[in-house]
Design goal:
Layout: H1 2-27, H2 31-34, H3 40-53, E1 56-62, E2 67-74, E3 83-87, H4 94-98, H5 102-106, E4 110-115, E5 123-124, H6 131-144, E6 150-155, H7 157-168, E7 173-179, H8 187-197, H9 201-205, H10 210-220, H11 232-243, H12 247-257, E8 272-278, H13 286-296, E9 300-305, H14 312-315, H15 317-328
Parallel strand pairs: 3-4, 3-6, 6-7, 7-8, 8-9
Antiparallel strand pairs: 1-2, 2-4, 2-5
Length: 335
């Protein structure tokens, strides 16, 4: 299935790029039109439709007079299904990062998918930039949606948030799944990894130009580049609409993540924990997965997906979903 998706994606992206360039050429003589985004809003609407077909609807919650958090939540909660919270990383809002997973996961779980603060429609005027504050906001939003217990799947930066959420709310979070996250890395390890990558972390995680986005995608994806055929103006549309909103605040999140504060002793979670890693991850190499597994002890296990990079949620969503279901669902339940 994943090999078919890969071939189809390459075929589709190539032909869409041709169509995009034709439209760009047709509109090139109309300077007032070409300033407006043309393609990313269409794709964003299509992804929203995928979420709606998965029995999800958007909702925005005011946690207080300074903080608003956006969720995708079930239209009708099924009490015979467990609750699963999906927490995204950098690289766009929740829709763009979980679009390949929601349909399959929604068949087995009640999905709750927040946009973290400063992503999508979530925002706070407060000055906190910690993973703990992000986690508190997610938990408060879940409680307002009536969620009292859940399992959690978090990717990359979301893993830092999800880890704190599980630590601070052991009575709520039952099982934890973390995909390719640098949780537990020391400051020295972060600096060494950044030297190997050779890019400023802010430029890497918050691209401003198409070439920056190409670097991020090439670093995150092993099997294929989803933007290989995309013209630069399409990539700039994506950057302007998805990546550069709340730019200053996102930069502050990165700086906090790299600060000494994040090097405090990492607590050991009480929950059973599944770690998933791509064996070709160049952002947080596999050694970090083994390191986190050793730290967590016997309640944690590590699953490795072959020929997959950092963004396994994009490259190998079927494999990731199968691991999530096998870990969280009762063994008697049909996967």
């Amino acid at each position: 299935m994943e090999s078919f998706r890969l071939c189809f994606h390459n075929f589709l992206s190539f032909h869409l790029s041709i169509i995009a360039n034709i439209f760009r050429w047709l509109f090139s003589s109309l300077p007032t039109i070409k300033r407006f985004p043309l393609f990313v809003p269409f794709i964003d609407a299509y992804i929203s439709l995928l979420f709606r077909f998965a029995n999800l609807s958007p909702c925005t919650l005011d946690l207080d007079d300074q903080t608003t958090i956006h969720f995708w939540a079930p239209n009708h909660r099924r009490y015979d299904k467990p609750n699963l919270v999906l927490i995204h990383g950098y690289g766009g809002d929740a829709k763009w990062q979980f679009m390949y997973q929601v349909k399959s996961l929604a068949e087995s779980f009640n999905l709750y998918i927040p946009d973290l603060l400063f992503f999508g429609k979530s925002y706070t005027s407060r000055k906190e930039r910690t993973e703990e504050f992000q986690a508190k906001c997610v938990v408060q939003g879940l409680k307002e949606l009536g969620v009292r217990n859940c399992s959690m799947f978090a990717i990359s930066y979301g893993g830092f948030v999800g880890y704190r959420m599980a630590e601070m709310n052991p009575e709520m979070v039952e099982k934890v799944v973390i995909l390719s996250s640098g949780v537990g890395c020391s400051k020295d390890q972060k600096e060494e990894q950044l030297k190997k990558i050779g890019r400023d972390p802010v430029e890497l995680l918050i691209p401003e130009k198409p070439e920056d986005l190409h670097v991020l995608v090439n670093l995150s994806i092993y099997k294929y580049n989803p933007f290989k055929w995309a013209p630069d103006y399409f990539l700039q549309e994506f950057i302007d609409m998805i990546s550069r909103t709340y730019l200053k605040e996102k930069q502050e999140l990165v700086h906090h993540l790299l600060s000494n504060h994040t090097d405090c002793r990492l607590p050991i979670l009480n929950q059973e924990t599944l770690l998933i890693w791509g064996d070709k991850d160049r952002v947080f190499p596999l050694m970090f997965g083994y390191q986190l597994q050793r730290h967590l002890g016997p309640r944690a296990k590590l699953e490795i997906i072959k020929n997959t990079g950092h963004a396994a949620n994009i490259e190998s969503p079927d494999s990731v979903n199968a691991l999530i279901k096998a870990f969280i669902l009762p063994q008697s339940k049909d996967l």
